[in-house]
Specification:
single chain; 231 residues; alpha/beta; Uracil-DNA Glycosylase, subunit E; six-stranded mixed beta sheet; globular; binds uracil
Length: 231
């Protein structure tokens, strides 16, 4: 767990002043007590490893949509494959396409701070995108590209079985929830994604351009923490 002073330091770096509660209300990761694995542990690990490998190979060689012709490499996702928290962005940008990892540019640094602000590290969550290849010129991914890539995301979700999904920004939120509602309408609510609670948070790239919204992003993260603590 992150110590409170350090968390306040991260929040300060985010440009957020925080009301300090009487009791430390940072919630631990969502660990469910008395969980019984469905498969015996050894079998579960073996199966999951095999599935992950097959999935990574399939993504690395994917030609399901036109994005394969302009990418340098696919960006599968990084983090804990058994994470409670799954963060989903829209698609890799230039730096991600170069490095093969999600959220490594400026927006990625802010996402790292946001994750630290909720008392976690990037290694303790899983981060991926709606599409695994960079849309040229950093345009939004098209609906057909998102649809082509969705089976990969769905399989990642099935394997991770997160306790909570955080949709980063409008594109991820609207596509995951199959809605045209605005981000302002979608934030601050607990949505459902196939039985998994989903919350919507401003995209860190947007927050870099709209500093005034950082406070709202912190409210959204607090909402997600509260939700997670009740699961
Ligand atoms: N923006 C995203 O949505 N995803 C990334 O990986 C990087 C920037």
């Amino acid at each position: 767990m992150l110590d409170n002073a350090l968390r306040l330091q991260y929040l300060h770096a985010l440009g957020i002043d925080v009301w300090i509660p009487k009791a430390n209300n940072v919630q631990p990761p969502c660990v469910m007590a008395n969980e019984t694995p469905i498969l015996a542990p050894a079998l579960a690990t073996e199966t999951a490893t095999g599935d992950w490998q097959a999935l990574e190979t399939a993504v690395a060689g994917c030609t399901r949509c036109g994005l394969c012709s302009t990418r340098n490499q696919t960006v599968f996702g990084t983090g804990d494959r058994q994470a409670d928290w799954l963060f989903i962005g829209e698609g890799p940008g230039q730096h991600e396409d170069e490095q093969g990892k999600p959220f490594v540019g400026n927006a990625g640094q802010l996402l790292t701070e946001m994750i630290r602000a909720i008392g976690l590290s990037r290694d303790a969550v899983f981060i991926t995108n709606m599409v695994k290849c960079r849309p040229p010129g950093n345009r939004d991914p098209h609906s057909d590209e998102i649809a082509s890539c969705h089976p990969y995301l769905q399989q990642q979700i099935n394997l991770i079985q997160p306790k909570i999904i955080v949709a980063l920004g409008r594109v991820a939120a609207q596509k995951l929830l199959k809605t045209e509602a605005s981000l302002a309408q979608l934030r601050g609510k607990a949505h459902d994604f196939s039985g998994i609670p989903l919350v919507v948070v401003y995209h860190p790239a947007y927050l870099l351009r709209s500093l005034l919204e950082k406070r709202k992003a912190w409210q959204d993260l607090q909402f997600a923490m509260g939700l997670c603590s009740r699961l």
